Amino acid sequence: MSQYNLAQILVGYPVPPMQRIKIFSPDEWEEFVEEWLTVKKKEFLDTDRLGGAGDKGRDVVGYVTCPKQYPDSYVWDNFQCKHYDHPLMPSDVWAEFGKLCYYTFIGDFPVPRYYFFVAPQGLGTSLSDLLRKPNNLKKELKVNWDKYCKHKITKTVSGGISLEGELLKYIDEFDFSIFYKMKPLTLVEEHAKSRYHAIRFGGGLPNRPNVGDVPQDIAASELVYISKLLDAYSEADDAEYIKVSDLPKGKATNKHFKRARKNFYKAEQLKQFSRDTLPPGIFEKFQGEISSGVVDIVDEEHENGFVRVKTVEKEARRLAITSNPLTLCSDGEDRAGICHHLANDNSGDNEFVWVAADDD
Q1: Long-range contacts of range 132-139, CB-CB < 8 Å, 24 or more positions apart?
Q2: Over the stretch 22-64, which tens digit does the pLDDT of each residue have?
Q3: pTM for this one?
Q4: How far out from the chain centre does Cα 62 lie?
Q5: Distance (Å, rounded) from C-alpha 311 to C-alpha 255?
Q6: 347 three-class SS
Q7: 241: exposed, middle or buried (C-beta count within 10 Å: 0-12, 13-18, 19+)?
Q8: Which of 61, 131, 135, 214 is the most exposed place for a label (fewest CB within 10 A)?
Q9: Contact call for residues 298 and 352 (beta carbons, < 8 A)
Q10: Is the dihedral of CA 130, 131, 136, 138 positive or negative?
């Protein structure tokens, strides 16, 4: 019997991340490294991608201290991205050593704390050996300067950058122990902890954590949508519910309120899950699709506000949303909860009001 399935026919065999990074474009490789750095937030004050013309040998950087506050002495790490079809050799990167030495010599930026070479094929034996032996690296850089660095550092200096005088003295005193390699496997394993991994490599989303118990005390962040619910319940029961404690126990309004809070918190957890596992904006887009799918029902005539909110929740549960990744890990309770997220806004132009002024 054939072992092929529909998924293989549609998309082919999955490409493992370690193989996929080898077919990235140079720009995609820099983006991948920038994404990887998002899991290092505790190590860096900020990160930036500078790769391109005029980057002076800085592709992706992580700032330990603020460049604006300490323009001449900020602490930073450099991640030099090289996407070649072979493990990096010394001849691939002599110019990068030269750029760092030259631009720190003229004071364009301070010497980094660490300088990492980041390549999908890793580093070859010769370059790895040089990084482990800083004195040999310094010696070989000087030997190879004229061939690989003199005319490769900048085109703004006529005749190139000669290794002589104060620059030669600077390089003789330069600490070449700051150079390291970053293993591709380490990058992929740590990138898996980022919110970009599923979009970059596929393979599905991680399991969503269990939703905790709903807090007994109402948070200040809930007051708007709860106030709107109380208005809806008041209209339905022809009563005046000012506080949640006013709701009669055992009645439909009280039961609905408990479900609404549970769903609100479940949607809040979905929002956090999206922030942890997907690129920015995915939850907001999901919320927007629900909003556009039910807002006309909000505007329709209803017997009372309680009927309106239940009708909106019901429609949200059955909306056909197929393109958003969160459809894979959300359910009807999340969608109903998002309706209350949409109502949890007290701005004058918010359309999610269960009892409009002219309904009173």
Answers
A1: 134/175, 134/176, 134/177, 134/179, 135/176, 137/97, 137/176, 137/179, 138/171, 138/172, 138/174, 138/176
A2: 999 999 999 999 999 999 989 999 999 997 878 999 999 999 9
A3: 0.77
A4: 15
A5: 16
A6: coil
A7: buried
A8: 135
A9: yes
A10: positive
pLDDT tens per residue across span 176-185: 999 999 999 9
Q: What average pLDDT does the structure give for the chain?
A: 93
Length of the chain: 360
Strand order in the sheet with 179-182: 46-49, 60-63, 76-81, 114-118, 179-182
Task: Kindly tell me the burial class for residue 249, based on how many C-beta atoms sit within 10 Å of its own C-beta (0-12, 13-18, 19 or more).
Answer: exposed
Phi, psi of 67, rounded to the nearest 5 degrees: -65, -30
State phi, psi for 345 to the nearest 5 degrees.
Answer: -145, 120
The amino acid sitting at 80 is Q
Distance of alpha carbon 332 from alpha carbon 319, whole angstroms: 10
Question: E strands within the chain?
Answer: 46-49, 60-63, 76-81, 114-118, 179-182
For residue 133, how many other CB atoms are within 10 A of its CB? 13
- What are the φ and ψ backbone dihedral angles of 227, each rounded to 5 degrees? -60, -40
What does the pLDDT look like over 262-304, one tens digit per residue?
999 999 999 999 999 999 999 999 999 999 999 999 999 999 9
Structural domain boundaries in the chain: 6-201, 220-359
